Amino acid sequence: MLNRTQIGEILHRIAEMFPDAHCELIHANPFELTIAVALSAQCTDQKVNQVTRSLFQKYRTPEDYVSVPLEELEQDIRSIGLFRSKAKNIQALSRMLLEQYDGQVPREHEQLVQLPGVGRKTANVVVSNAFGEPAIAVDTHVERVSKRLGLANWKDSVLEVEKKLMKKVPREEWTQTHHRLIFFGRYHCKAQNPACPACPVLEFCREGKKRMKKLETV
């Protein structure tokens, strides 16, 4: 198990690798961010940005999304996986914003997770990036990196990974750490062929050490 000093050193080295890590979903306001994150489930940010480039020109408010037939919205996001369920959720989400929140995205996490298609991860992204509230959103990259490094256990649920990171990282660093772990997982510690030989945190990484031993025996 990593101690606090080792964890601090890991995060420091990852921060040096990706000092400008940020949310890569293009958005202009909390509502667009909420839509973009909802679309990003099981889809890359790059693909979402390709779709929202035109989507956010056509639809600017919750009223815009509920005023078109569901089939039309489905066609607008057809190139994204699970487009039918996502279109349905977006319309339901927009309707709920109009009926309960005067068309505005709520700032509270408890209210955000009540919106259709908005889970804990999406809510964490919105509160941290749109409203400046420290949060750690655990996506596939954060989960993979945390488990490989030993910041969490292999069998931990997404929620358990989030809670462990919240305990091990100072609250004021939650949001930036979330972004850096995503960048580290997306561009360096990839699911397939992670860059272990050139990794600055290899000495702390149980998965990396195991992979390097296999390479040495080949």
Automatic annotation (TrEMBL):
<comment type="similarity">
    <text>Belongs to the Nth/MutY family.</text>
</comment>
<keyword id="KW-0456">Lyase</keyword>
<dbReference type="Pfam" id="PF00730">
    <property type="entry name" value="HhH-GPD"/>
</dbReference>
<dbReference type="Pfam" id="PF10576">
    <property type="entry name" value="EndIII_4Fe-2S"/>
</dbReference>
<keyword id="KW-0227">DNA damage</keyword>
<dbReference type="Pfam" id="PF00633">
    <property type="entry name" value="HHH"/>
</dbReference>
<dbReference type="InterPro" id="IPR004036">
    <property type="entry name" value="Endonuclease-III-like_CS2"/>
</dbReference>
<comment type="function">
    <text>DNA repair enzyme that has both DNA N-glycosylase activity and AP-lyase activity. The DNA N-glycosylase activity releases various damaged pyrimidines from DNA by cleaving the N-glycosidic bond, leaving an AP (apurinic/apyrimidinic) site. The AP-lyase activity cleaves the phosphodiester bond 3' to the AP site by a beta-elimination, leaving a 3'-terminal unsaturated sugar and a product with a terminal 5'-phosphate.</text>
</comment>
<dbReference type="InterPro" id="IPR000445">
    <property type="entry name" value="HhH_motif"/>
</dbReference>
<dbReference type="InterPro" id="IPR004035">
    <property type="entry name" value="Endouclease-III_FeS-bd_BS"/>
</dbReference>
<dbReference type="GO" id="GO:0140078">
    <property type="term" value="F:class I DNA-(apurinic or apyrimidinic site) endonuclease activity"/>
</dbReference>
<keyword id="KW-0378">Hydrolase</keyword>
<keyword id="KW-0479">Metal-binding</keyword>
<protein>
    <recommendedName>
        <fullName>Endonuclease III</fullName>
        <ecNumber>4.2.99.18</ecNumber>
    </recommendedName>
</protein>
<dbReference type="InterPro" id="IPR023170">
    <property type="entry name" value="HhH_base_excis_C"/>
</dbReference>
<keyword id="KW-0004">4Fe-4S</keyword>
<feature type="binding site">
    <location>
        <position position="205"/>
    </location>
    <ligand>
        <name>[4Fe-4S] cluster</name>
    </ligand>
</feature>
<dbReference type="InterPro" id="IPR003265">
    <property type="entry name" value="HhH-GPD_domain"/>
</dbReference>
<keyword id="KW-0326">Glycosidase</keyword>
<keyword id="KW-0411">Iron-sulfur</keyword>
<dbReference type="InterPro" id="IPR003651">
    <property type="entry name" value="Endonuclease3_FeS-loop_motif"/>
</dbReference>
<keyword id="KW-0408">Iron</keyword>
<feature type="domain" description="HhH-GPD">
    <location>
        <begin position="39"/>
        <end position="187"/>
    </location>
</feature>
<keyword id="KW-0234">DNA repair</keyword>
<keyword id="KW-0255">Endonuclease</keyword>
<feature type="binding site">
    <location>
        <position position="199"/>
    </location>
    <ligand>
        <name>[4Fe-4S] cluster</name>
    </ligand>
</feature>
<dbReference type="InterPro" id="IPR011257">
    <property type="entry name" value="DNA_glycosylase"/>
</dbReference>
<feature type="binding site">
    <location>
        <position position="196"/>
    </location>
    <ligand>
        <name>[4Fe-4S] cluster</name>
    </ligand>
</feature>
<dbReference type="InterPro" id="IPR005759">
    <property type="entry name" value="Nth"/>
</dbReference>
<keyword id="KW-0238">DNA-binding</keyword>
<feature type="binding site">
    <location>
        <position position="189"/>
    </location>
    <ligand>
        <name>[4Fe-4S] cluster</name>
    </ligand>
</feature>
<keyword id="KW-0540">Nuclease</keyword>
